[in-house]
Write a sequence for this structure.
């Protein structure tokens, strides 16, 4: 019985490395998978129907807040955007007209929409502006190949906020 167990153990140790993948094969397979993920994410962004869902925000003062219990979305639908993001920052002086707003809220057309593609790092950067009644915002959305994203929102009357979350394809708005 001991001889059989010893034989099985030794044969397993000898045969397993011969049948398994080499490091080069694993690396090549991972590169193919990453390229496919990037290609798919690029197609979603090129279609201009996607959404960013924020899970965390970091204010310009460094406070990090979990947003999982609140709806925090940025939805792009061709040439328009719907934004509702919680805001934890300071308003600049002279901005009393928007002091009753709870967050970054906008629903309407986008201006200066552009997409930068970094093939080497497999990242996409989407930039656009919005102009509302009392405020205007600049959005910088950096999207990794797998959809993990960082959104930076700047405004002349608010401190900058950063949001971490995910970007994915969404359903078109009628």
């Amino acid at each position: 019985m001991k001889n059989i167990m010893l034989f099985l153990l030794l044969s397993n140790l000898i045969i397993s490395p011969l049948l398994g993948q080499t490091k080069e094969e694993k690396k090549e397979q991972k590169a193919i998978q990453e390229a496919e993920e990037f290609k798919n994410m690029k197609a979603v962004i090129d279609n201009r129907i996607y959404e960013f869902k924020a899970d965390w925000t970091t204010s310009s003062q460094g406070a990090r807040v979990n947003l999982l219990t609140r709806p925090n979305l940025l939805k792009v639908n061709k040439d328009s955007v719907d934004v509702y993001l919680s805001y934890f920052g300071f308003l600049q002086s002279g901005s009393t007209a928007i002091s009753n707003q709870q967050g970054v809220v906008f629903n309407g057309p986008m201006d200066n929409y552009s997409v930068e593609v970094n093939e080497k790092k497999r990242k996409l950067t989407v930039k656009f502006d919005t102009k509302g009644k009392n405020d205007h915002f600049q959005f910088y959305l950096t999207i990794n190949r797998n959809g993990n994203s960082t959104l930076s929102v700047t405004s002349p009357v608010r401190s900058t906020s950063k949001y971490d979350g995910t970007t994915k394809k969404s359903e078109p708005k009628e």
About this structure: The mean pLDDT is 85.
